[in-house]
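Limitations

Structures in this collection are predictions, not experimental determinations, and the ligand pose is part of the prediction. Treat each record accordingly. The example that follows, with adenosine monophosphate as the small molecule, is included so readers can see exactly what is and is not provided: the inputs are given verbatim, and the output is the predicted complex.
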Amino acid sequence: MLTTGPRGTKDILPDISYSWRYIENIIHELCQQAAYQEIRTPIFEHTELFLRGIGETTDIVEKEMYTFTDLGQRSLTLRPENTAAVVRSYLENKLYATLNPAKLYYIGPMFRYDRPQAGRYRQFHQFGVEAIGAKDPSIDAEIISLAIQFFQRLGLNDLTLQINSVGCPVCRPIYREKLQAFFKDKLPSLCKDCQSRYERNPMRLLDCKNEKCQELSQGAPHIIDCLCEECNDHFEKLQGFFKAANIDFIINKRLVRGLDYYTKTAFEIEYKPLGAQSAVCGGGRYDGLIEQCGGQATPAIGFAIGLERTFLALEKQNLLPPKDDSIKIFIAPIGEKAKEVAFRLVYELRSAHISAETDYLDRSIKAQMKSANRYQAEYVAIIGEDELLNNQVMLKNMKTSEQELVSIDDLKNKLVDKAGEKKND
Ligand code: AMP
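Predicted complex:
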């Protein structure tokens, strides 16, 4: 127990953490270039926020939340997603007063009591983007294109963008009735979940994973054929933007978001080689959510990308960059007095932003040279007895094997000069 992490969690070990930074750097750069600003919200929120902001009839709220009571008897929940928290923060901090639209992004861990398997964890990470305050389909197109550009920058191809419209409070009730009429006599044969969805959230009947339910839903009416004029126009315009920018997409009429505050655009990006957990990005418009959370009616749209799945896709296509944790110089002291000098040198070099490492285990010089190689050190500075007497180090270039005696006081400048020489080569 003490040596095993909780089920569904994963340590990000040193052999992979560098590639998390690689992905995070791409996210920050991309978002900065598209004028999105980072927001960091707490990992836990009042449970109530998620009940309202995700919806009480969703799988997440019904079955997957990590909810606990704190010592002050408040019900808190580890965030299962971050849109609701961003909206909470937007309202609490009155971001609408300065940012319009508020274009925000986040990277961070989310928590869901899911059934762990490849690509599905109980703690996982999402990169998400929210644009709050604009209703024009051009912002839908921008948001979706940002997700695509993120995957493009990573070098991932073979992605499929699926889009749909889930209507609005004007056209959806009519569609709901049609849908319920279609399923009415099939109700006894549907799974238990679908039977309860029938009344509360009938659109979710379309994305049940149960084979029997999928079969029974063949021929069900599609919302896209029941859109009101405004929703239809929005959806047409969105497609127009994609065509103008040569962004490929597929219309998936069964792509749904079941709750009333989801409106118009819904989309998903899939990377099929991942198999069962192939969705790498999901998102959509949520024009009713801000009001639902206590704000003024405000249109908004966003997406969330699963970073673990992105990693799996990158590994599959061999696209992770090689790890580079090489250092500039390894200081190899021999003897107690030399260790002090080594410490001083490492300290001074690091202060000058030069990567430096030394030995902490009283290793032999041979073993220290091995360490230096493992660190792919460009130089090794050996401090033996003779060198110590003369206030020098023996500086060895590990590539050329050239050696020279350098005064301890000059070492830093020497390395800086050498870096300059290299640049001018
Ligand atoms: P959602 O918030 O459910 O729309 O999910 C957005 C994205 O997060 C999905 O497309 C997945 O890539 C990722 N995701 C969702 N749930 C999990 C999970 N349990 N483990 C890993 N990734 C997940």
